[in-house]
Amino acid sequence: MSTATGLTAPTHPAPAVDGLDELLRSMADDEFVIGFSDSEWTGIAPQLEEDIAMSSLAQDELGHAQALFQMLATVTGTGDADSLAYDREPADYRHARLLDHGRGDWAMTIARRYLYETADSVRLAALMSASWSPLAELVGKLVREERYHLMHVDLWLDRLATTNGEPRDRLISALETLGPDCGTVFTPLPGEPALLEARILRRPMAELERDWRAGVAPTLERLGLPALPATRDPTRGRTDHGEPFTWLHGEFTAVRRSDPGATW
Amino acid sequence: MTDPLALDPVLAPGDRSTDAVPSTLAPTRAHDEAYDAWFERFEAHLAAGGTVESTDSMPDEYRTAVLRFVEMHANSELMGVLPERDWIMRAPTLRRKLALTAKIQDEVGHAQLLYRVAEDLGKPREAMFDDLLAGKTKFHNVFHYPTRSWADVGMIAWLVDAAAIVAQQALRNSSYAPYARTMRKICWEESVHIMHGRDVVVTMVTGSPAQRAAIQEALDRWWGPLMQMHGPRSPREKDKDLRWRIKAKTSEELRQEFLTIYVPRIRELGLVIPDPELRFDEDAGEWRYTEPDWDELRTVVTNHGPMSEERLEFRRLARSETAWVRETILAAPQAA
Q: Is residue B139 part of a domain?
């Protein structure tokens, strides 16, 4: 079976399909939601040069979301990227709770981007050798762009952490706010055993989280930043979305809801 | 966004923008014969199609005129971000969201390029932001109005950018070479915006009855500001910016050009232009139209438009909330 997106269908055992659905939805929702937060800076970022950078990051993340939603539509055989992205109730989104804190100030944006980008890179690395080649190929493309995102956020983390006073205080405060949700990118997926068995996901999420924590700890220590706490209520890391997401959902569905079924 | 000085004729002297670089030497130099001779040679150079680089010597009068023109263009790009920005979060599909984000990113990029051109003429970027937010310098009339629906996103990208590009294309041969080079890049990007805007408009015009009605309603609201956008007629011979070839066309020439290109394109979509007097006079070879409301233009560009104060206040707030970040960029890094 070939599809409109040029992807080739997988030849893995049927039980893994449910898990694949969950995996793609969680990744697509992560990129979709962080892309929205980043695009909230378009036009009002701290300086013009950073404004342009942030718009590029937002477009990258939303482009990734689009590709992942397209793949999800192919896998499930229902809907298209837009209907999958937009036409759900808030409770049906599966992004990590880490991304549920609203845009916040610049320090919050950098803290969120740092925690998310480093976690995402560990997750993507574990999917580069997925047995389903369309996914492995897509992940390869995403990784190429995410490298630049990491370079951008590393610079900012360093600069805020090493500038005493307001910048460092704000960064620490943001890390403390996000801390209890920091590991939610690695929330175990319902279909995870099937994904592991089908060798789509090469290692369990819990193991990836340990790798990620081991990777970021030296950076935080070098910069004298607080160590990351254990994740609060880790099994519900992708389901309990709060007020900021309710607002965001209201915004991004406003035009679609104004004329249901219309083509935009 | 375009030809900001076209607005000056409608402003009372007290409302006009002041010279950013005070030409304190001018009164003395006015009696200096050597200076007069040099000034004449400079004007002859411009009249012969010559260009000026930022590192060339230039009379203060010319430097000030270019700075004022470019600064207001930069301000308009920066303030022009805000009406569309309101819809980034509400864009109804992934493709529209990506296109709108990219379009607004371009506008921020244009502001950055233009502020850099202006900075080279001697006014720091922060001083230009200070003057803009204090209401001492102006931004274009169309960005003082609210955006009420997604149809406005299409209307701005299509027709506001189209009216702008008519003026901007005429700036690609500006005598101030850094500005001319910048305009070549900007025009290329603006032409993509027009395609994006037209696509939004065509999709809605051919969509549901409510979508089609929203586009017509948006056109009804934007037509007045669009007709005012290039400013009232002003005599070519009295315009220093034309004489020095900072710009190439008068307000009326730009408006006629806009109407010639876009009236047929608007009508081709079955939309009705809300001006019963609008027609092409074959004998005179030009468009006739209801006289635009110049009082409205004067009111709006002096920051008394429907959204003027709200937009300026929004920008003041964003700037003050992020001041600490700019200080961080400038601060010497310290050990953790």
A: yes
* B89 belongs to a structural domain: yes
Query: Per the structure block, which two tokens stand in for A242?
Result: 């709060």
Output the average pLDDT for chain A.
92
Across chain B, mean pLDDT equals 92
Q: Is B166 within the bounds of a domain? A: yes
Strand partners, B280: B287
Low-confidence residues of chain B: pLDDT under 70: 1-31, 333-336
Distance from CA of A1 to the nearest CA of B (A): 25
- Point out the residue among B101, B208, B327 whose CB comes nearest to the CB of A262: B208
Cβ atoms of residues B56 and B79 within 8 Å: no
Residues of the domain holding B283: 45-232+250-313
Euclidean distance between CA atoms A4 and A84, whole angstroms: 16
Q: Which helix (H) or strand (E) holds B48?
A: none
For A106-141, write each residue's pLDDT tens digit: 999 999 999 999 999 999 999 999 999 999 999 999
What is the phi/psi pair of residue A243, to 5°?
Answer: -60, -45
Which CATH number characterizes residue B58's domain?
Answer: 1.20.1260.10
- A42 with B328: Cβ contact below 8 A: no
Is the Cβ–Cβ distance between A246 and A90 less than 8 Å?
Answer: yes
Angle at A201 between CA A197 and CA A202, to 5 degrees: 80
Residues in chain A within 8 Å Cβ distance of B93: 82, 86, 264
Answer whether A178's CB lies under 8 Å from A111's CB. yes
> What is the ipTM, given to two decimal places?
0.92
The CATH fold assigned to A16-224 is: Ferritin (1.20.1260)
Percentage of chain B modeled with pLDDT above 90: 85
**Encoding tokens for residue A194?**
């099937």
**What residue of A is the nearest CA neighbor of B149?**
A255
Name the residue in chain B with its Cα closest to that of A164: B334
The count of structural domains within chain B is: 1
DSSP annotation of B232 reads: S
CA dist B181 and B179 (Å) reads 5
Which candidate from B109, B210, B326 shows the least CB-CB separation from A259? Answer: B210
Question: What is the phi/psi pair of residue B288, to 5°?
Answer: -110, 145
Helix or strand holding residue B279 (H, E): strand B279-281
Contact B203 A263 (CB under 8 A): yes
Of A22, A10, A16, the residue nearest A137 (C-alpha) = A10
SS3 label, residue A8: strand
What average pLDDT does range A69-82 have in this prediction? 93
Q: Is residue B208 part of a domain?
A: yes
Torsion-angle region of B335 (φ positive above 0: left; ψ -120 to 50: alpha; else: beta): beta
Share of chain A above pLDDT 90, in %: 88
